[in-house]
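Project outcomes to date are best conveyed with an example. Our students and postdoctoral researchers have been running inverse folding experiments weekly, and each run begins with a structure described purely in tokens. The record below, which covers 295 residues, was selected by the lab manager from last quarter's runs and is presented without edits.
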């Protein structure tokens, strides 16, 4: 159990590094994501081939994976665009609203019972984002992309629930990455038309950061999380993953001194958003205890 918890928190810490690496890489958001998905798909292809783990995917499930891959690609583009137009801290705080959006969208997609408390928490998170925007007007476009990234993350998380666990995680991610690459390849001419100065060739240390992003923050982190999940409850995993934005913001403060760029209003907004996450965590703990000790 202890080893699994350590593995899970290493995975969450590695995911927290994605914001720092996104700022360090000089490529624009669409090109950065294209390389990340391509390198991840290639690494997974070699791992699956070496271990002879190829299995047949049903057409209905492949269709859902396709949607997840498309939405994941767009999510990453929006997330890295948020970093480029603001900074990693603001992008990660906006992204932390994804869990609230997931709860709201789960009700719409899966026809679950409406939860008025979750609706209130969603509104409170939006107020938090507005506070950040109000005091960081120069980062307005980055905040917008951050919220879009959170909504897209919520949508593909809800869809991914329907195929998660049916196939090995590496196989699922390989197909999602492959389909995401196809989408971005099709959209690349449009991206170059909008920003003709956009570079396609990584500069200086970009290759190193891209390899770390793909190998460590995607393939390795996912493997650690999947291994830990086999020993831990989904409840424990959910609580741990909520630490990702916290790790990411602390790393951004450490590597880029972003705390010097931020207005006090940022901390007010972040406090409101973290409050929604804490309340949601407390509710999960309460529901978990009720399941263990029924009335």
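After processing, the design step wrote out the following sequence:
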């Amino acid at each position: 159990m202890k080893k699994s918890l350590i593995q899970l928190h290493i995975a969450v810490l590695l995911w927290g590094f994605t914001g720092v690496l996104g700022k360090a890489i000089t490529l624009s958001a669409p090109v950065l994501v294209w390389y990340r998905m391509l390198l991840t798909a290639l690494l997974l292809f070699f791992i699956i081939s070496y271990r002879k783990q190829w299995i047949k995917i049903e057409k209905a499930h492949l269709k859902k994976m396709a949607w997840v891959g498309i939405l994941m690609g767009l999510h990453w583009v929006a997330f890295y665009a948020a970093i480029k137009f603001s900074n990693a801290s603001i992008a990660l705080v906006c992204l932390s609203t994804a869990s609230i959006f997931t709860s709201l969208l789960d009700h719409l997609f899966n026809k679950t019972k409406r939860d008025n408390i979750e609706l209130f928490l969603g509104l409170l998170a939006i107020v938090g984002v507005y506070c950040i925007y109000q005091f960081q007007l120069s980062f307005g476009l980055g905040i917008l992309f951050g919220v879009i990234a959170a909504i897209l993350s919520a949508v593909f998380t809800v869809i991914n629930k329907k195929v998660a666990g049916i196939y090995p995680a590496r196989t699922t991610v390989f197909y999602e990455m492959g389909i995401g690459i196809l989408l971005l390849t099709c959209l690349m001419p449009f991206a170059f038309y909008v920003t003709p100065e956009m570079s396609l060739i990584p500069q200086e240390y970009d290759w190193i950061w891209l390899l770390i992003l793909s190998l460590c923050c995607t393939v390795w982190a996912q493997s650690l999380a999947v291994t830990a999940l086999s020993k831990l409850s989904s409840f424990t995993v959910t609580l741990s993953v909520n630490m990702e934005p916290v790790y990411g913001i602390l790393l951004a403060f450490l590597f880029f001194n972003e705390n010097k760029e931020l207005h006090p209003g940022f901390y007010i907004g972040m406090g409101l958003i973290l409050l929604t996450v804490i309340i949601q965590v407390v509710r999960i703990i309460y529901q978990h205890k009720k399941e263990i000790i029924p009335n």
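The chain has one domain: 2-292. The CA atoms of residues 83 and 100 lie 21 Å apart. The training component of this project remains on track.
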